[in-house]
Request: fold
Amino acid sequence: MNRRKQVGYMKKLIVVLVLLCILTVSGCDKTESTAEIPKPTNTLIQKTPLVVFAAGSLIIPFHELEIAFEKQYPEIDVLAEYHGSIQVMRHVTEMHHQIDVVATADSNLIPMLMYAVDDPETGLPYANWYINFGTNRLALAYTDRSNYTEQINRENWAEILSKPDVVFGLSDPRFDAAGYRSLMAFALQEDYLGQYGLFKNMFNDQFKTPITLFREDELALIIVPEILDTNPAGHVLMRGASIQLIALLESGDIDYAFEYESVIKQHGLSYLILDDRVNLGSFDAVDLYDNVEVKLDFQRFQSVDPQFIGEPIRYGITIPTNAIHSDAATLFIEFLLSDTGREILLENQQPMFETYSVDGYENMPENLKNILTP
Reply:
């Protein structure tokens, strides 16, 4: 390369280097730059967590309710858990969890186990009001794998279930309303047929410590022991909640189980409709149902002695007094009782009352008072 071309090349190189330095300085030294830096936008919404504990039979309808509710109230995040109805109560009163909404398949559990127990933090009862919002009927669920499906009927089902080659699924009556209602169904069937050995034939030798039935005059008293372990040689299989028996039915591990009619329909199972004098779903049979009582013979709860008297099934809902997000809880219950909420539950086979009865109306949030009557 000749000298002239070398000089020209060096000039071009110097110019390029100068331009690179200028660009580097303007890009890195932000104190000298007059360009406006765009600020990051925070698109995340801080949601209110709404903790809902409900009976297992409400899983499907409440899941659909949750989706619709969160669509209407995107600032609220529903955190739902499902257990046997008594276990739901224990999470509040025994484990002292701060739950915003409690929904149970037996509304009587609310005054029995929440009114009667005080929160040690506040000295107030865990609840002082509730709403009866739904009902149901007990039915006997089975599948095409179950034994004796061609023979079973309203009159002989107790005899069929007591056969040693029939595996019966029972939800634990110590934790689940469907469990103690299943025991009631046997006692009510005895009354219906006038055959007073059906309960004993079914449950004799099925538990290491027996469940016993005592009769005095017209009253049938069923005693459930503190320790309730099934006999491995028996034909009763027990789980903590009735919803857990669905998978055992579908897999063929059990032949029959008492379930709520809504749950049976949701899962497409076959079922036997029980007589109204037995199914705990008829308000015309109140005088028959209340002749049966289940007593839990232990102090699992700190200050109450649970006894359950037979009566038509009522679902109840309340907001515990120690709820953290009571305003959001009120919105959830309002939504449940609205036309939209009613439609969602009915579409998912969960029966709703035409009008909602209330206990403790004077203690309810004002927004709920405005849509309900005492």
